[in-house]
Structures are given as C-alpha cells and as structure tokens.
C-alpha cells in the first residue's frame, strides 16, 4: 500500500517518508563504492570503477569518479554521472563567483551548503526528480583546514572523519572504517586504509589501476596539493599495500 | 477510504483534514526529541542526536540540531535537515534585511511569523510538499524579553513556556514538562529539567555528549549571550545532574 | 459515487456542489466556537480556546483567536490559524493602503469584500485548496457605525446582528442567539449573552479564562475603543455572570 | 459511462456536451428563483430569498440578490454569491472604464457581452471551473431603451421580455410568465405578475418581505430611477396584491 | 477501448483520430441547421432557430444565428453561441486591424484563414477544448467577388457553392442541395432553395418567422448590400414560396 | 499492455517507441495519396482528392492539397489540413524572413529543416500532440537545383527522387515508383508515371479532374515555373495518358 | 509491478532506475550500428544505413548518419534523427558562439559536455521525454589532439578508443573491437577494422555503398581533414578490404 506514495516526488507517505528520495539513494547503491578519509595532513578519496571497457580513453580529462571544483575543493561521485555533471558545473560557477566577489577561495562548507540547497529543491517541487547522486567533498580552507563532507540526494550533508558512499557493501565499508580509523592517521596510512576498505569485497584479480582510482589532498609547505595517482603509481602502491594487507589479515 | 485524499497537498479530506501536513508531522516524530524551556533569566534548548557514527566530524561548524539565525535568535530543528536549511537561510536573510532597513534587530515574533507564512504556502499550493520540519525558536528582543516559540509543518506557531518537538515519546516529554516546570525557574535549573525530559526514555549508557546537545541563552549584564555546551562541559554537567536526578527519582 | 468529484477544487459535482469548499467548512467545525454580537453601543466577540496546554506563553502578542486588522476593525477566527494569518496580513495591508490613498479608514464592508474575493479565487482555480478558515469581522465606520460580518471558505459573506462560527454545536449556538438576542441589547448584555452561548455545552469546570477569550468594541465619547478582557477581568466577569446565568436557567 | 467526461471543464463528452457547465447550472437551481419582466415603462426584478436567519443585518449595503452595476444597469443573481461578486466587480470596472473613455454610459448589451466572454473562458481553459452563477441584467440606454438580458454559466446570453433564473420550479415560473405576460404591461402590473410567479409554489406564510426582494427601473421624466422596495413597501404591496391574486385564482 | 483516447484534446487515438474534435462536431449537430448558397448575384444564409420561447426580446441587436463581422463579411453560426462570440470578436478585430493597416477591406479568405488557425490551436495544445462551433462565412471582395466558406471545430475550411452546417438531418440537407443547386442560380432562387432545404424535415406548422431566419448579400449598383429579412418579409416570402414548394413536390 | 504508453506524447514505450507519433502517421494514411517525382528538368507533384462534394467552390484560391510557400518552393500535403496550415504559414514567414535578411531565396533544404525542427518539438514536449501531417516539398535553388523532400509527423525528413505520402495503398505506390522510375526521366514522363501510381488502385470512373490534382515545377530559360494543371488540361492529359497506360498494362 | 514507474520521465523506480531513459536506449538499438575508432593519425566513423529505398536522393547535403558540427568536430548518430537534429543545431550554435567569443575552436570535450548537460535536463524535468539518440563525436583540438566521445540519452558521456552505438548486435560489435583494436592502429587500418565490425552480422550481399557510410578525420600537414568516402571510393575499399577480410577469417 505504501506504493501509493512513491510516484510523486513532492508527497509524504503516511509514515512521513519521501519515497523518491529513498529510491534515488538506491540508484546510488548500484554505483561503485567511493571512500573518503580525513587525515592529519590531508584527505584521501578512493573509488572503485564499475565500467570495465578497456577501450575507454583515459587520456581525456574526464575522470569517471573524481572532479576538481576549484584549486582547494574536489568531489567524488557515486550515482548518475550526468546528474552529477549539472551539480558540478553549478559548484564550479559558485566557487568562481565567490572568488570574484571576495577575492578569496570559497569556504568549503559554504560551497557544500549551496549545492545541497539546490538538491533539496528537487525533492520538494513537483515535476522534478531528485538528483540521483551522492558526493564526497574534500577541501581545505583557512578557517577549518582539511575537511571532508558527504551529501546525499535529499540535500542532507555532514562533515565526516571517514565515510563511504555507493557500493553494494556500503555497510561493510563503514564498519571497516569505524574499526580501523584513528584520528592521528596520516594521508599515506589513509591511502592504505582506503585500499583495504575498497578491496575487502572485490575479487583479488580486479584489484588494479583498471578498477580503482585514488587521489589525495595534502599540503606541501604552504601549498595545497591535489594529486591523482597515475595507473603506474596506483599499481605500484597496490602491490606494496596488498602484501601488508594479507599479513594483517592473517 | 480516507486515503483518497492524502496524495495531493492541496486538498481537504471530507473530514476537513490536509493529510500531507499530518504526514509531514509524522516525519518529525522520527527525529530526535528537542526540548525548549523559557526561564526567568534565559532560555534552554536541548536535543537528542540520532546519528551515531563516531566518525562524524564535530569540528565543522554544522550543528546537527541548533542553528543561529542572528545574534538574538536561535532555532532548534526536528525533521528533515535539508528542508530546515532552506527555511534557516530564509530566516537569516529576513533578519539581516530588517536590520539593514530599521537598524535594530528584528523582533522575534515577527521573524517567526514570516517563516511560518512561507511554510503555510507549501500546504496550500499544488506541486509542492510541506516542509517536513518543526522548529523551536529561542530569542530575546526589547519588546518581550526572552521568548520561546514553536512552529510545525502547517505554519502554525505559538509562544511557549516549555515545550518539546520530535521524538517518539513526545507525549511523555510534554507531561514531564507540565509537571516539573515552574514559572520562576532559572536557566540552570532549566538545563537540568531539559536533561530529565530527554533522558527519561533513553538508555542510560547513551546519556553523554555523543547523543545530546545543550545550549542556552542568558544575559550577562546588558549583553545577550548564547552558549552551546562543549562535549566536555556537557559530560561534566550530565555527571553532576544525573546524580541529583536519581535522587529525585527515588 | 459523489466522491469522484471531491478531489479537485475546481470542479462541480453533478449536483452542482464544490466539495472541497464543503470539506474546508468541516475543518472549521473542529475549531472552537466563536460568537459575535452586534449591540446598540458596540460589538462583542467571544471565543472558546481549544488548546489546553498550560505552558503556552500568554505574554506574547499572539492572540489565539482574535486579530486586530486596524484601529477600527478586528476579526475573530475559526479554522486553520496559519491559513488565517495569510488573509489577516492581506487585510492589514489593504487597510493601510486605503488609508494611505484616501487619508481615512477603510469602510468595513469594503475590507471584508476584498478578503472574500481573494478567498473565492482559491475555490475556482486549479492547484489550490480553499482557505480553511471562517472569520467574524467587527468594525466601525462613519457610514454604517458598528458592523458585524461573517465570511466562510467559499468567499461568501453577510452582515449579521449575532452569529457564531466554528464549534461542534454551532446549531445550538445559533438557536440560543436567535431566542435571546434583542435589537436594543447593549454591549454589556451582549457579553453575558455571548458567555451563555459559549458555555451552554462546555463542562462547567472549564469555564474560565484559560478556555475563553472575550473582547468588545465600544465608543467612549468620539473614540472607538477595542478591549480584550484580561484573564482576571474575564474570570471576575464569569463569576458574576455565571450566577445570573444559573438563576436564569432555573 | 457518461461520467468519464464530467471531471474536466475543458472536454466534450461523446455526445458533445460540456458536463461541468451543466453541473454549474444545477448549482443555480438550488438558489432562490429570480424573475425579470420588461414593461413598457420600466423593468421589474424580483427574487426569493433563501436564507432565513432573522439575525442577518439588513442595514448593511449588501443586498443578497440584486446588485447595482452603474446608474443605468442593475443585475439580479442566482447561484454562488462569491462567484457573482467577482463578475460584478468586473462589470462595475468595465462600466466605469467605458464612461471614462467615451463620456457616456456603456450600452447595456455591450456590458453583458463583456461579462459573458469572461464566463465563456472559464468553460474552455483547463484548471478552472465555470462561474456557478446566472444573471438577469436590467438596464436602459439611449439606443434600445429598457432592456432585460439573461446569462448562464456557459456565457450564453439573450434579450428577454420576461424570464426567470434559479429555483427548483423554474419550468413552472416560465410557463406562468408565458401565459400571463402581455407586451403592453406597465411596471406596476409587472410587479404583480412577478409576485404571482414567485409565490406560486411558496408556502403562503412565507410570502413577506423576509423572503422576497422586489425592485424596478422606471423613468421619471428624463430621469432613470431604480428603486428597491423597502420591507414596509413590499409588505404593503403584497397585502394588496395578494387579494387580487386570490380573486384571480378563484 | 477507443474511449481511452477521448479524454484529452491533445492526443491521437491509435486510428489517428482526435476524438475531442469529433465530439465537438457532435455538439454542432444538436444546433439548428444553417444553409448557405452562393448565387450569381449574391449569397443566401438561412437558419433554423431552436429556441422557441416567445418571450425572447427580438428588438435587441443580438441575432441568434447571424453575425456581421464587417461591411463585406457576415457569418452564420451552428453550435455553442458563447464559443462563437469569442471567435466573432476576434474576427471583427482582425478585420478592423487590416483596414487600419491597408485602408481596404480584408479579403474574405484571409479572414477565414485567420479564424481557422486560431481554432486549430485549440485542438493541439493541452488544457483547452476545441471551439464547439461551425461557421458559414459569406462575403465579397474585389479579388474573388462573392464567396462562401465553411469551417468546423478542427479549423479546416473550404470554399463552397452551397452547403449546410448543424442540424440532425445534415445529410438530407446536403443531398437536397446537391440535386437542386444550379451554378447560374440568382439570389432570389437561392432563397427559395434554402427554404426548401430547411423545411424538408420541419413540422409544417413551425415554418414561420419564429423558427427561421433568412438573410442575403447582393450588389445594388457598386454597393454591397446585406439584408436580414424582417419577420414580416420572411412570413410573406414563406407564404409565396411554400406554394411553389408544394407544387414542386407533387 | 503496450497501450499504457500511448496516451502521452512525451513518453517512450518499453520498446523505445513514441506511440503518439505512430498514431499521427495513421491519421495520414486516411488522407488521399500524394506523389512526388524528381525529373531531370523539373518536379511533379500529384494528389488524389478525397472530398467529393461537387459543390466545393474551386474558384477560390484554396488548393486542397498543394500550397505555394515561395516562388521557388511548393509543398503537397497529406493529413489534417488545419495542422498543415499552421506549418505552411510558418514556412512562408521563414522564407520571407530569409529573403529580407539575405536578399536571396532561402535554400530548399534549410526551409525543410526549419519546419521539421518545429515538428520535432511537438513530439517531445508535454501537453501537445504531434502535427498530423506529412509533406512533400518541391523546390529549386542555385546550390542543388531541383529537389524533392518528404517529412513526417516525427520531424524526420529526407531527399527523394520519387516518393509518395498518404493513401491506404502507400506500399503499392512506392513499389510502382521503384520499378518504373528512371533517373533520366523528364517532367512530362514524370506526370505520366504519377498518374499511373495514383490510379493503380482507383476506380477507373473516378480518374478525372474532380478527383485528381497535378502540378509541376520546370525551368523556362532561366525562369523557374510552377504550374497547376487546370481541370481541362488535367482531363485532356488523363485521356491521352490513360490510353498509353492501358497499352502498357496489357 | 515495476511498470508503475515507467510512465513519467521524472521519477525513480524503487530499484533506483529511470525507466524512460532505458526505453530511449532501446529506441537506439533499433537504429543501424555506428562504429568509431580512434587511430594514431585520425579517427574513423562508419555506419550501417537502415533505409533501403533506392529512390532516396543522395545528392542532397543530408547525410543520414554523419553530421559536421564544425571544421574540427563531426558526430555520428544512432536513434531518432529528428531528435538528433535539435541537438546538432544546438552544437553548431555553441561551437560558433565559442569561436566568436574566444577566436579559437571550441575544445571537443567542452562541446560534448554542453550537449550532454542539455540531454540530462530532459531526463529530470516533467513534461519532457529524453532525447532518443546516442552520438559518437569525433574531433581534434590542440589540447588533446584526436578524440572520440560517446554519449547516450541519459546525458552520460565518456572518451573512447573504439566503440559502437546502435544496432541489434551491439555486444558483438564491442567484442570484435576489444579483440582487434590496437593502440598504434592508423586510420587506414581503422577503416578496415570498422568494416569488419559492421559487416560481421550483415548479409554479404548488402555490404556495399548503399548500406554503409564511411568517413574519417586525419591530418594533412597542419591541416585537419574530414573526408566522407564517396559511394565509388567506398565500394572500391570494400572490394579490397573484403578479400583481406575473408583471408583473415579463414
């Protein structure tokens, strides 16, 4: 009977639920998992790639999962990529507008808040569907240093120390993070933790740069640096890390 | 049969009810309880936090339940946070606009009334759903001193001496407030009363700063002061208060 | 079968009825009763309050049932308060606009007519629901002296000598008014008559200033005066009146 | 099966009918009957009042059934009064605009035609319901002298010598008019004929100024005069007329 | 099953039909028949009147069936009169606008074409119903002399030598026209032919000026003359014609 | 089950079809067949007329099937004529606008492309139905000489050497064209081929200028000439051609 | 049951799918296959033509499957051609606008991204259907040299080394590409590979320039050259290639 209330985005069901938002969240579950970890000295974003076609042209500028919004903010995506593109365009514009007005980078939380207000509108007005996409936002600003946020299709968001979005085994990922995360982790350890989380349920033969994407924010002196691991860097890193991993599991 | 009338926000059922508004109120019941108490010398807002992930990053500026609108007004939220954000943005803007025009803080009731008129519109026009959020507004102005208001998804509001929103045991909370509230309560006693109300139905092991959020308005000389208890302050306060509490119960 | 025609505000049923308007009237029946009596020397408005929470803060400026529109017009409300607020805002603005344009108070009937035209629109256009509120308007102008009007959700209105809106026992109230009303009644007798009407079906223990609200218009010399009885005044008045009342009943 | 086509104002049924318009006409049948008679020297409008509350305040300017549009045009209404108000406002504005532009009164037919075009629109566009009201328009202009028009919810209109709208016994009224109307009738005889038509099916005890409303247009020298019979005039007139009436019936 | 496609004006049924347009045509069949005949020296329009109330005021300017658009164009109507009024207003405005711009009368076909484009729009856009009216347009211009056009609710139109719209026996009328029409007919013979067509299925007792309306265009020297037969002229004409008629039938 | 997807123009069925467009195409099948043939030295357009009323006035400028858009472009229509009129108006305006801007005739393909983009919009947006009309466009421009295009309700179009639209035996017509068409055909042979195609399935007694319409484009020196065969020319042509035809068939 | 969610473009099904987008993709499967291959020194686009009418006029400028957007970008289409036209117009305009503003060709990815954002909107807003078309974009810019992109009705896009859209045997085509593609392929080898992919499932007798369309981008010195193989070139190429092909298969 609950199904009577799930065909319009703008209505509540008798239990007070907005079903279209919940269905949008299901869409995200089909996407590859994405993990974000806030470290003392940076932030790690790591994602599982679902598309397997070896003919994809990696040399273009399109990352499948990670998008730079500004020099100091990056986001990782789980869900419908074309929905995400709209919001990312909006975020980039917001960021530039802020810079143009105030001559300083937009604070990370303010940017996240603006995107989420847009998302919320698509859950309340008729004739629209919610954006079928969740984000992890990693950024740095002078007020709060490194920050990691997560938002979902409802427009809710929160700051996290470590979290994951997307993936069928999201629960699993969250519980690994809870048990292994330590507040004084550095970004290199965070990379390893992210690998552990993502590969827990993957077939070992798939654990390589074709199926994974890793990046991190850190600080080099006064400079904020964002780096995406090249396939070679990633494969090397996996080879080293994997060994440790097995040891630890045993 | 009544269900025929609950799929559009803009219609009355034969009994004269607007079901979407009632369902939105149900949404609020799933949220953690929030208590507001008006004291002689201030106002107390206290909330139960539902999210339990220890990985949430508390250092960011986002309070989960309490939002400053202006120097002299604060609100506590129960319901869908992304819905609340939209109304809070609107309230902040209204407040600044008033100040810009009249060079004095907006009277608390006028601010509450404006937000509620916006809420009402979402219950009368087609293609929209009501805002799934109730508010407690705490504020001070020169006309009426400290004031506590409560509003719900229909856009109704009223001034209260002590009240609670959200929470499965809302009835319970209201009855504790009715029996224990005294008009000459001071804000410190109000903090203790709020704790008693919130913890009545909580598992004792959960009664700590991870699960609770306390704040109060008071006056220091001519200055209005709003203070959110830090986790440490809160835990200390709970330890002391809890003892008293038990004594009283016995 | 008639139910096929009751889910859109903009259609007639085969019998020529607009069901949404009739359902909105049902909504008003759930509200507390409100009585208006036109006297030789003034007008009385009296209302039963439904909310019983003793923690409501009466010191704020919000009357639950009676709203001043201008110095010379007041209205009493039965129905959804947040709907009423929208119309009252509109009435206040209309009244000020008239004054600004013509430098004299708006005639009472003109004001009532404007509000009712607005109400009518919400019964004829799609995507809207009717306003779920009935009003009693009490006012004075130089053309017709004291006047009492009643309007309902359809936008119909009429001038009355004595009438009541809201309340489950509306019929009862009307019949008491019909049998006891005398054209040469003065406002003090009208207060007593109003009390009699409202308390007829109330539990005697509830007959006090917590549950009732009384106000009247009268003329002091050339001055129009509007007065809301304070809880003390009201309780005193009830004590005196009640006795008479009982005598009369016996 | 025909019922499939009666829930949208903008569609034809397979038989070529627009049901919403027909239902609106049903709404008018519930209203009290209104009779118009064109005489050599004037026009008579007479109506049965449905509301019986003796507490209605007759001293206000609101006639229940007859509305002056301009010095030279009056209309009588059967149906939903709040719908009528909207069209009467529109008619008054049209009339003044015409006068302002051309410095002479608007021809009666032109005014009627404008109102009816507005009515038509509400039967053809989606999201609206037809106006639930029929009118009799009585007026005088220099082109055609005294004129009587009738319009219905579809926006159709025509000039009549004598006609009636509203009332459960509309057929009856029409047939009395057909048999008794004479082209050389004067306005005084027309008043009597109107009384006969309206009272045919009324309970004799109700035939008084509480239940009836009579008015007429006539010419005093060059002056057009519109007069509504006062309750006293009406009761006197009924007393005299009634006798004749009985004689005639016997 | 075909009925699934008849409730929206904007959709095709699987057989490629737009049902709402076909239903609108049915509406026209209920109207009285109207005949147009193009003669060498003029055009005849003749109509059967459906309304029978002898109290209709014929002295007003409203013809029930024939409307002058401009000095050189007239139209006859079958269907919903209030729908027709809207299109006739539009046609009059178009005609005047053309004259104002080019200082010569609008060519007849251009006028017809404009009205039909408007009609077409109401069959293609949602939320509207087609105009429930067919027209015969009779006119003269310097390019093509006398012309007779017919249009229907779909917005289709064509030039005709003789045709009829409306009436339950439309087929019958068409077949009489086909068998009796001669290209070298003059307007007087055309009047008789029109009478024959209209009266074929009428009760002989109804064949008089109460039930029929005749008019014709002809040329007096260089002047285009449009004449509506007065009731007297019509009755005289019927008397003479009828005889011939009977002779011919025998 | 497929029928669930055929009531809205804007949706795909599970098989990826837009049913409303397919139904519109069915509407075209009911229309008379129209043939276009591109010859070395011109283009032939020939159509079967469905309306049979001998009373249609052929002297007016309205061709039933062929419409001149500009001096160098003509179109033939199959489907709903009033729909076609709208697009033809649009085409004429486009053509004139182009000429006004660039001082040379619009290239034929550009004109066709503009009309088709308009058609496409009516298949993708809600609240509209597709245009129920197919076109053959014949034209000449300096870039590509004589060109023949065909478009359908979906907005698809293509250039053709010989094609037909409308008609129940469209398949048949196409196959005759395929077997008989030769690239070096001249416009006179093309006229005969067109006749053969159209008359294949017609009753021989109907093959005359009442039922057929023939026109062609050709070049006289540098001049582009468009000629519609007069009824006499057509009947003469049929007489001659028919003989050959029979010979050929035997 | 899933079918409840497939009739509106703007809703998610409970499994998080947007069915209208998936149905649009089905529409594309009915189209002929199109193959794109990125070579070291150019890009090949090759398509199977579905329309078989030998009477199609190939001399017009309309390619059925390949459209030039600008000097440096071309796209190949699979799906509804009239939908594609709208997007191609938009792309051409975007490209020219960019050039006008920055005086250099628009980067290929930026162009693709703009088109895809437009596509996305048609999957999220009510009252629209998604564009039923997939594209291959081939282009060159100074930032990334030769690039090949693919987009689908959802608005997703990605860069590819070799891919195919449309065609019932899309899986098959993809797998041939995966097994035969080599990164150091040159454009001539790519032409042969494309032929192999397209003809794998075609009837050998259809493998000729009537059924196929081949084009390529390459660089002649500093010049970007786009060439569509003429029917003769194509048939010659097929003859040569086919032989090799057979040898290879054996």
TrEMBL record, chains A, B, C, D, E, F, G:
The record's listing under Gene3D superfamilies reads: Glutamine Phosphoribosylpyrophosphate, subunit 1, domain 1 (3.60.20.10)
> What's an example Gene Ontology biological process for this entry?
proteasomal protein catabolic process
The GO cellular component terms are: cytoplasm; nucleus; proteasome core complex, alpha-subunit complex
Output the superkingdom of the source species.
Eukaryota
This protein's name: Proteasome subunit alpha type
Q: How does it assemble?
A: The 26S proteasome consists of a 20S proteasome core and two 19S regulatory subunits.
Q: Which InterPro entries does the record cross-reference, listed alphabetically?
A: Ntn_hydrolases_N, Proteasome_alpha, Proteasome_alpha-type, Proteasome_asu_N, Proteasome_bsu_CS, Proteasome_sua/b
User: To which species is this protein native?
Assistant: Polysphondylium violaceum
Give start and end of each Proteasome alpha-type subunits domain. Answer: 5-27
